[in-house]
Each structure stands twice: as structure tokens, then as C-alpha cells.
Write a structure and sequence with these properties.
Blueprint: H1 2-17, H2 23-40, H3 49-59, H4 61-77, H5 84-118, H6 129-159, H7 168-211
Helix pairs in contact: 1-2, 1-5, 2-3, 2-4, 3-5, 3-6, 4-5, 5-6, 5-7, 6-7
Length: 212
């Protein structure tokens, strides 16, 4: 449990404290996620809702691994890519998806800690493995849809320059561009809100434990 707490602290710093990830935090995050996946898939660890959420959080770093490995392969072997703009956008969208999944799952872990601290008995029927898996699945589906929209928008931006002014591609471009812009704004404000909520939750938990 101490190792999992350290891992959560690392992830909170990486996604909810730092304004943007750097090479050091990304490397430490990947190592921590690999270690956490190994621990949580061990038969010695009991399956609880918190463990399910943390495991899903660790698996989200697979998206970072794909992006980092792809960039290393291109840089090391000087691989020629037919659609550089498309690939660059895809790798960036994978990092964005990882950040959004991680922030949402960290917030779920914080909310569960709040329930355990203040409503341990009343919330027992909510803090189940089934609900944790369902929550993780919903988060992954929503963020995957967001990533697909962002990627579609980037693809249409790249192809809109060569399309006629009144073609269906242009109309689709305007629709996806508006939807992507709204979603990016919503994600930005949601990220700020999640930071505030997480600080408030752990502030309440800290002083509650101190008073005891």
C-alpha cells in the first residue's frame, strides 16, 4: 500500500500539479506504472475498487509508451512517414488522451477516499469492484471518442486546403472544427475544476485525520 500511495502522489504531481509533463516526470511515471501493474496483477493483492481504478490509471500510460516509442523509432532510424502531420497529431492526441484519462481516474480515487473517510458505511454499496470497472470503462470510452474527434479535426484541417469551397469535406471540416474547439474549451475548464475539487477533498481528509 505504501508503494501505491507513492505512485498516486507521483501521478497527482504529474497531472494535477505540474502545468505540463516533462521528460523526468514522464519517465518516472512510466516506471511507476509498470511497477504498479506488476503489483496489482499479483495474486497477493486483493481486488478492491481502489485497486481497479489505480490499475486502469497505470494502464493509461500505455498511450504514453506508444507515443514515446514511435518518436524514438522515427528519430533513431530516420524512418520516413508518408503523412507527417497526421502522425504528429495522432501522437499528440494520444498524450492528451492519457492526461485526460489520468486526471479523471485520479479524481475518482480522491472521491472514493473522501467517501471512505466520511461515509464508510453509507457508501459501501457504491465502492464495489463492479462500479469501479464500469467507471473506468466509461472514462476510457469517452476519452477515446474525444481523441477520435480531435484526430478527425486534425485530418480534415490537413485535407481542407485542397478541397473545393463548397464540398462536403469543407462542411464537415467546419462542424468538426467547432465541435473540437468546444470540447477543448470544456476539457480545459474541467481540468481546472478537477484540480480545485481534488485540493478540497484532500484538504478535508487531511484535517479530518489530524483532528482524530
Amino acid at each position: 500500500m505504501k508503494d501505491l500511495r507513492r505512485y498516486l502522489v507521483l501521478k497527482y504531481i504529474q497531472y494535477l500539479v505540474l502545468s505540463s509533463s516533462n521528460a523526468i516526470s514522464t519517465f518516472l511515471g512510466l516506471l511507476g506504472s509498470l511497477y504498479t501493474i506488476t503489483i496489482l496483477q499479483s495474486a497477493k493483492v486483493s481486488s478492491k475498487s481502489t485497486a481497479v481504478l489505480i490499475l486502469s490509471l497505470a494502464k493509461a500510460d500505455i498511450l504514453v509508451s506508444v507515443s514515446v516509442v514511435s518518436e524514438m523509432v522515427v528519430w533513431t532510424f530516420d524512418v520516413g512517414i508518408s503523412s507527417t502531420a497526421f502522425t504528429s497529431a495522432l501522437l499528440q492526441n494520444l498524450l492528451t488522451a492519457n492526461a485526460h484519462i489520468s486526471c479523471l481516474l485520479l479524481s475518482c480515487v480522491a472521491f472514493e477516499a473522501y467517501l471512505i473517510t466520511f461515509f464508510p458505511t453509507e457508501s459501501r454499496h457504491l465502492r464495489t469492484v463492479k462500479n469501479a470497472r464500469l467507471t473506468s470503462r466509461i472514462i476510457w470510452i469517452l476519452v477515446t471518442a474525444e481523441c477520435a474527434l480531435f484526430q478527425t479535426d486534425d485530418l480534415l484541417k490537413a485535407s481542407s486546403t485542397s478541397a473545393p469551397a463548397h464540398s462536403p469535406c469543407i462542411l464537415l471540416f467546419h462542424f468538426s472544427s467547432t465541435a473540437a474547439a468546444l470540447l477543448r474549451s470544456l476539457s480545459y475548464f474541467l481540468g481546472i475544476l478537477l484540480r480545485i475539487v481534488n485540493v478540497y477533498i484532500y484538504y478535508k481528509i487531511f484535517f479530518s485525520i489530524s483532528n482524530r
